[in-house]
Description:
The chain is mainly α. It has 10 helices and no strands.
Amino acid sequence: MAEDIFREVDEDLRRDRAVQLWKRYGNWVIAGALALVIGTAGYVAWQDWQRRQAEADGVRFVTALDLIQAGNRDRAAISFADIARTGRAGYAVLARFYEAALLAQTDIPAAIATYREIAADSSVDREMRDIATILAALNAIDSPGAGDAVEDLAALAGSASPWRFTALEIAAISAMKKGEMGKAKESYTKISDDPAAPAGIRARAAEMLAAFGG
């Protein structure tokens, strides 16, 4: 009997202590629990928003491509410009490339400027920036006054980029068009002497060197 009384008293004391602790810290516990729930819900909602945004950008991108197929290049260019400005990173970069490609059909200097902007954008992946440098130079070969874009190839040609051999070939073509045969031969020789050069580019370089007389 005495043990039962002591047990009840002990339980009452613990209950009273729990009540006191709850009164003191209950609001904090509730706030913490709410913060956890809200934080989790917010994260889930953010992930869902990200997914929906990606899907929306994908739909916009495909719609712009369909406009090209339909021959409505002006509207397609506007759509790509909008995606480039407001879309998520991946779609935005691709949209800038398509926007530049469409510009190249009517306004070469503007296309070159767009490619060079991509190439100079540190938020874009290195490989994509290198491709933009290549495309700017390709468009600049036959565009008077756009020599800077071709000169940009120098850094790319001297790097470990997988595009360095393409850069050397474009630089050689540009040099030939300017009558700078010595520079052209120098670029082709670098390609021909490098076993890492892709077979097709290396073969073309060897043919050009043969045409130059060795």
